[in-house]
């Protein structure tokens, strides 16, 4: 049987499993064509009676088996003993930080160092949402405040050259701000294109309402971030701009025809399809897949993201603990990974939930590992030399034109 046909049948089995409400183990067994009993679990890591492995054996295991396909978040400002053991045993590919993890400059640097230590690699990705405007985990005095992405869009509308330069500068300066603490991945740019009547969750996080302008400014932000040694993650693919709800709280639904989405919502992502990483949208596009939101949809991921948009970089889910998704975290994570996400993201730091996500995630392999390695190569390049004081002065002068 040809490989594409095998893949289609696998995805159909998964879709039927999610629809039928199967457990995560049964779901994976259906994909493999086996029985529930064929799914191996790590009872020791989930709090069973298996003795905890030594630190040396954990590091040896990590070198031998590699990182697993999930991104985790610590709960507080330091790693607890349980978190350290869990992370060392379950080997998440990367980590993400939030305001709850940030107290002081030294504390944050120490926490990042601890996460890279348990990650086992200097290039262990440490993510943060630092966009400028209202989405910033680092706030003064930990890092400067910046105008909104919409402000950059307004500058671009009156002076395209100045706007594009300001976007690059903001990307480069955001990279410098997070790299000061060892953070090496920033979830920017936001390439969503809002439309009238959409929920305000995107709002001024967007660079504008014109897909071409959003693409131009998004590319500049991403290039600036990479010049600063930081991995950019474009979001929320294939587009959150039309969402009629806040996906943190409920599932947005978009009924717009696929052809219309392709002309606007998909366009910035298509223009930036060569970027190394992207984050999915927890949105139900009813004209494309009326059953599953993008993060869980083999149709959206394969037909839209991978084929129509042409994105071959690392695809990470949005936070699996957001209220847009409902169900057991094991089932949801297994479904997202089987649908085509390379890694799943879990953000609330709840240990019981993380255990469920970790059990669904397998060691990175094949295309997913290739894409993850390419992301770490961006991090490994590091930052180019720059006069940051001069860049900040130039940025301030350009943004002063917005008024």
Automatic annotation (TrEMBL):
GO terms for molecular function: beta-N-acetylhexosaminidase activity. The keyword Signal applies. It catalyses: Hydrolysis of terminal non-reducing N-acetyl-D-hexosamine residues in N-acetyl-beta-D-hexosaminides. Residues 1-25 form the signal peptide. Keywords: Glycosidase, Hydrolase, Signal. PANTHER family: BETA-HEXOSAMINIDASE, BETA-HEXOSAMINIDASE-RELATED. NCBIfam families: PRK05337.1. This is beta-N-acetylhexosaminidase.
